[in-house]
Amino acid sequence: MEETISLKELFQTLRKRLALIVMITAIATMASGIVSYFLITPIYQSSTQILVNQSNSEQLLNNPGQIQSNLQLINTYNVIIKSPAILELVIEELKLEESVGALNEKITVSSENESQVVNIRVEDEDPQKAANIANTTATVFEAQVKEIMNIDNVKVLSEAQLGENPSPIEPKPVLNMAIAFVVGLMAGVGLAFLLEYLDTTIKDEQEIENLLELPVLGTITEFNQENNQGKQAQSAKKGTVRGESFGA
């Protein structure tokens, strides 16, 4: 026998388990908010930029091969910036109490395609510390690249600035709570349909007709033994009272 589920039955299931769905969604959203606001340590980001090639515009126009050479050097510079030769000097200058590997994980070096600008981004729990690391890394690299590569074509283009009220990049409580709301809602709906699927009890005549494909001819009223004993006791009491009145 092929079973079909109508849209009305789906809505009935959702309505029946509405309290469960709302509870799961609310718990997931509140838990995400609590974790985001109180348990996760905020992470701040600061960035600086360096420019590869200090040639003037006329030289660049007359020598386009110089631009291509500088672009090829950028990939090498990206590696040198995060190398121990640079980071050890940054740690020494700022007197940081962390290893080269830990500092390496905080620094991200990137450049746009066909661009001679290299971005140095630093993430840290302290916004001032992040800005100091970014600026120091740029200046140290600018000074050391002359000795490492024997080329003087790097210049700090812009320094990291710390605003009055820096905003963390992580966590993002509103986004996290929105995601938790959607996930909680989906979990609640899924659990509602799972419970409905596992519930094999028959609750009314309509379910019997749908299951057996036969009409219901009659029903038997639910028998409550406690109520029946109470009625019998009341009847016996009335009979006793009547008997006493008759004897009098």
UniProtKB/TrEMBL annotation:
Give me the stretches of Polar residues compositional bias: 227-237
Annotated stretches, region: Disordered: 227-248
Q: Which InterPro entries match?
A: Bact_polysacc_biosynth/exp (IPR050445), GNVR (IPR032807), LPS_length_determ_N (IPR003856)
Q: Which GO terms describe its molecular function?
A: protein tyrosine kinase activity
> What does the UniProt keyword field contain?
Cell membrane, Membrane, Transmembrane, Transmembrane helix
Q: Where is the Polysaccharide chain length determinant N-terminal domain?
A: 3-94
Q: Where in the cell is it found?
A: Cell membrane
Query: What name appears for this protein in its UniProt entry?
Result: Capsular biosynthesis protein
